[in-house]
Amino acid sequence: MKSKKSAEITKEMTIGETLQQDPNLEEVFLGFGMHCVSCPVSQMETIEEAGLVHGVDVDFLIKKLNEQKSKKGKK
User: Fold this and answer.
1) What percentage of the chain has pLDDT greater than the value 90?
2) By the 8 A CB rule, do 9 and 65 touch?
3) pLDDT tens figures, 61-75
4) Which of 57, 60, 64, 63 is nearest to 28 (CA)?
5) Cα(58)–Cα(2) distance, rounded to whole angstroms?
6) Which CATH number goes with the domain that contains 15?
7) Largest Cα–Cα distance of the chain, in whole Å?
8) In total, how many domains does the chain have?
9) What's the pLDDT score for residue 1?
10) Domain carrying residue 23
11) Is 9 exposed, middle or buried (0-12, 13-18, 19+ CB in 10 A)?
């Protein structure tokens, strides 16, 4: 059974859920020009919804979030 800490990030997750798993993933969102990480809406908006609003390739964003998360886990 996977713990919430090790769960893969999906586009159905909210930005808030993602940052609860790993606050350092904020830098990935910021790198995509998504400065909404501290916005109250980020607690309700999925990564997919936010990506569409910001014109971001959501699949690429998810890939980068999971890569960053797995890098941290290997340290």
Assistant:
1) 64
2) yes
3) 999 999 999 886 555
4) 64
5) 24
6) 1.10.3910.10
7) 35
8) 1
9) 38
10) 9-74
11) buried
